[in-house]
Structure prediction request, 324 residues.
Amino acid sequence: MACIVFVVGEVALRLFWIAGGRWGYTACDRTDLVDPAGGCGADRVEALPFWTGWGAVGIGVALAVVVVCAVRFAGRPAATASWLAAAFLLLVAFPLHLLFEIPAALTGRPSDWRDLAARLALVIGGVLFAGLANAVGPRHGPVTPGYRPVPRWTRLWAYVAVALPVVGWAVPHGLWVLGVPFGISASTLDDIQRNLSTQTGVAITLVPPLAGLLVLGLVQRWGQQFPRWVPGLRGRRVPPLLAVLPAGLVALALVTYGVLSVAVFVGQLRAGDLRWSDVWDGWASTATLLVFLGWGVSLGITTTGYTLTTRPRQEQPADVGISS
Prediction:
C-alpha cells in the first residue's frame, strides 16, 4: 500500500507539472544557481524536459506494474523486480549528494530545497520497494541464528573505509576552515574563506566521516542483530539487505564519482588546461579525488564480506548412528 501511495504521488505531481503547474518543480539543474530556494526561475519554464515529465510518468506506471505483480504473484521473480526498482530509485536519488547538501543547507547555505525534497522522496520510495521485496520474496528454511563474525580481511577493509574520509577529507577541510593553507595555494584558501561560512565548513567537514562510521555496522554485532535499546526489535536479526543495499549503492556512487573525477582531471592535464605546477600547489585538493575512489572501493569490499558472512546457511541435521 505504501509503495502505491508513493507511485501515485509521484505520477500525480508529474502530471501537475505537465499541465502547467510548477509547485515543487526546480530548474536549478539546467540554469545557474540564482535564487535556488525559488527553484531558479522554475515558474518561467514553459516546456518540461522529457524525463522530468512524460518519461517520469512512464517510469511511475512501470513501478505500479511491479507493485501489482508483486502483490499478486509473490515469489522470487516479484522480489527481484522489487529489488531492482528499489536500487533504481536509490541510485537516481544519489544519496552522496544529500550527504553533503543537507548539512550545508541546514547551516544557512543557499540551497535548492525542492531538489533535496525530491531526492529524499526517492530515497523513501527506494526503502519502501526494498520492504516490498523482502515481504514478497521466497522464505528460506531455518538458518543459523546469532552473530557470525566477519573474516579478518573484511574488518580491515572496514577500518580503511572509516579512516579514509577522516584523514583524506575531514582533516584537510578542517584545516582550511581554520585558515591553514594545507596542501592548497593561498589564493585557493582565500576563495574558500570568502565563499564558505564557518557553519557550512564545519558541516561538510564532519558529516562524511560521521556517516563513514556506519560502515562499522558491517563488521560489528549491531549490523546483524538489533541492539537491546531498539524498541520492538531488540535482539532480532537485521535483514542483510537492509545493510547491503544502501552500502552497495553508496560504494557504487563513490567509485563512479572518483573514476569520473579522475578522468576529467587527466583530460585537463592532456588538454593543457591544468599544469603540473598547479597540481603540486593544490595537491591536497587533488588527492580528495583518490580519497573518494578508495573510499568506494573499500566500502564495496567490506559490503561483499558482510554479504558472504550473512548469506543464509541451511542447518545440517545431526548424523544418526545406526547400531548393529
